[in-house]
C-alpha cells in the first residue's frame, strides 16, 4: 500500500483520467497552477474524486460534457453523490482522432479496431466508409486503445488522440478521422475549495436540482425559477435519482454568477421549490463570452425592489424617486 501523501504533497498533486496522452491530460495542461506540479493519472471518475476527498490531490480534471455525445453521466452522477466538491474552473479541448497501428500494418490489413466507445461513436462514419467490414473492441480509454495493440489484443488498429505518437511507437494510418471537425469536450477542474471567485461578467453557475415529486408541471416550475429572473441555461440534463421510477435530478449550467442578483434570486426560488439543491460552483467560462441579458434584470433593479419592500414594511413614505430604477429598466 503506498504511503499517504503529506499535506504539502497533496497541495502539489492534480489527478486526471489517465494514462498520459489523454484529452483529459491536455485539459489539465491548460491549468496555470498545475504547471510544474505532480500529475496523478487515475482509472475512473470515482478514483479521481476519492483523491480529492481524501486529500491525496488538491483537484481533479474530469470530462463533463461533449458537444456530440452530450453530458458525461458518470461525472454528473458522481458530483450528485460525493459531498463537498466544487467546480473551480472549466476548460475546452478540441477533439479529433487518428487511426494508428503497429509498425508495418497497412490500412487494407485492418479488420478489427480498438476504440473507446465515445471515440468510436465520433469516428464511426469515417470507419464505416473506409473500413466497411471492420469489427470493434471497446477500450477503457483513448490511450488504452493504442497501448493494447502491444499486448495480446486481437485488434489490428486503434482510434486514438493525435498526440499518441509521443507516447507509443505506432504508425499513423489516417489523420482527422472524426466525423465532426467542430467536436469539443468540456472539462471541469473539481476541488474542495469553498471560496467563490469574484464575478467576471463571463461566468457560469453549475447546480444539481431534484424535482420535489413526479407530477405535471414540476419541471416547468423549476425552469420558471430561472426564466422569471432572466437567467439563461446552457445545460439542462436529467439523471435518475435511483430511489424510485419517475424520480429525477437535473444537472444545470446557468449563465451568470451566484453574486449576480438575478442568479442569487433564482437560487432562492430553487431552494424554496426543491428538496435538494446542490451548488457546484460559480466560475469563469472557458470561452470568456460575456453574459447578455436585458436591463430589467440588472443588479440595481433587484436591489431597488428590496429597498422598496423594506420601505413599505417600515412605513416609509413612497416618493417618485423610489421607482426611478425600475422605470429606467422597463422604459416606462
UniProtKB/TrEMBL annotation:
<dbReference type="GO" id="GO:0009094">
    <property type="term" value="P:L-phenylalanine biosynthetic process"/>
</dbReference>
<protein>
    <recommendedName>
        <fullName>Prephenate dehydratase</fullName>
        <ecNumber>4.2.1.51</ecNumber>
    </recommendedName>
</protein>
<comment type="pathway">
    <text>Amino-acid biosynthesis; L-phenylalanine biosynthesis; phenylpyruvate from prephenate: step 1/1.</text>
</comment>
<dbReference type="InterPro" id="IPR008242">
    <property type="entry name" value="Chor_mutase/pphenate_deHydtase"/>
</dbReference>
<keyword id="KW-0584">Phenylalanine biosynthesis</keyword>
<feature type="site" description="Essential for prephenate dehydratase activity">
    <location>
        <position position="185"/>
    </location>
</feature>
<dbReference type="InterPro" id="IPR045865">
    <property type="entry name" value="ACT-like_dom_sf"/>
</dbReference>
<keyword id="KW-0057">Aromatic amino acid biosynthesis</keyword>
<dbReference type="InterPro" id="IPR002912">
    <property type="entry name" value="ACT_dom"/>
</dbReference>
<dbReference type="InterPro" id="IPR001086">
    <property type="entry name" value="Preph_deHydtase"/>
</dbReference>
<feature type="domain" description="ACT">
    <location>
        <begin position="207"/>
        <end position="285"/>
    </location>
</feature>
<dbReference type="GO" id="GO:0005737">
    <property type="term" value="C:cytoplasm"/>
</dbReference>
<dbReference type="InterPro" id="IPR018528">
    <property type="entry name" value="Preph_deHydtase_CS"/>
</dbReference>
<dbReference type="GO" id="GO:0004664">
    <property type="term" value="F:prephenate dehydratase activity"/>
</dbReference>
<feature type="domain" description="Prephenate dehydratase">
    <location>
        <begin position="13"/>
        <end position="192"/>
    </location>
</feature>
<keyword id="KW-0456">Lyase</keyword>
<dbReference type="Pfam" id="PF00800">
    <property type="entry name" value="PDT"/>
</dbReference>
<keyword id="KW-0028">Amino-acid biosynthesis</keyword>
Amino acid at each position: 500500500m503506498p504511503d499517504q501523501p503529506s499535506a504539502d504533497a497533496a497541495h502539489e498533486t492534480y489527478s486526471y483520467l489517465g494514462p498520459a496522452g489523454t484529452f483529459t491530460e491536455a485539459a489539465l495542461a491548460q491549468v496555470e497552477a498545475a504547471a510544474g506540479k505532480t500529475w496523478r493519472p487515475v482509472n475512473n471518475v470515482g478514483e479521481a474524486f476519492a483523491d480529492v476527498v481524501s486529500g491525496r490531490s488538491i483537484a481533479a480534471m474530469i470530462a463533463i460534457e461533449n458537444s456530440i455525445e452530450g453530458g458525461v453521466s458518470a461525472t454528473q452522477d458522481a458530483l450528485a453523490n460525493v459531498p463537498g466538491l466544487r467546480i473551480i474552473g472549466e476548460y475546452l479541448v478540441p477533439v479529433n482522432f487518428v487511426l494508428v497501428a503497429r509498425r508495418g500494418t497497412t490500412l487494407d490489413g485492418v479488420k478489427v479496431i480498438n476504440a473507446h466507445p465515445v471515440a468510436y461513436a465520433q469516428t464511426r462514419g469515417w470507419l464505416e466508409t473506409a473500413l466497411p467490414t471492420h469489427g470493434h473492441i471497446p477500450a477503457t480509454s483513448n490511450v488504452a486503445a493504442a497501448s493494447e495493440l502491444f499486448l495480446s489484443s486481437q485488434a489490428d488498429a486503434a482510434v486514438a488522440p493525435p498526440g499518441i505518437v509521443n507516447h507509443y511507437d505506432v504508425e499513423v494510418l489516417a489523420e482527422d478521422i472524426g466525423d465532426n471537425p467542430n467536436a469539443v469536450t468540456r472539462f471541469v477542474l473539481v476541488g474542495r475549495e469553498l471560496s467563490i471567485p469574484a464575478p467576471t461578467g463571463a461566468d457560469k453557475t453549475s447546480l444539481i436540482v431534484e424535482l420535489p415529486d413526479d407530477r405535471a408541471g414540476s419541471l416547468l416550475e423549476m425552469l420558471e425559477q430561472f426564466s422569471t429572473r432572466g437567467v439563461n441555461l446552457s445545460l439542462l440534463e436529467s439523471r435518475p435519482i435511483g430511489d424510485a421510477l419517475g424520480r429525477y435530478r437535473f444537472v444545470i449550467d446557468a449563465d451568470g454568477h451566484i453574486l449576480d442578483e438575478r442568479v442569487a434570486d433564482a437560487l432562492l426560488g430553487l431552494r424554496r421549490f426543491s428538496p435538494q439543491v446542490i451548488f457546484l460552483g460559480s466560475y469563469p467560462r472557458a470561452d470568456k463570452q460575456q453574459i447578455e441579458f436585458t436591463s430589467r434584470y440588472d443588479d440595481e433593479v433587484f436591489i431597488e425592489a428590496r429597498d422598496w419592500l423594506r420601505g413599505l414594511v417600515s412605513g416609509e413614505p413612497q416618493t417618485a424617486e423610489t421607482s426611478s430604477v425600475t422605470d429606467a429598466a422597463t422604459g416606462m
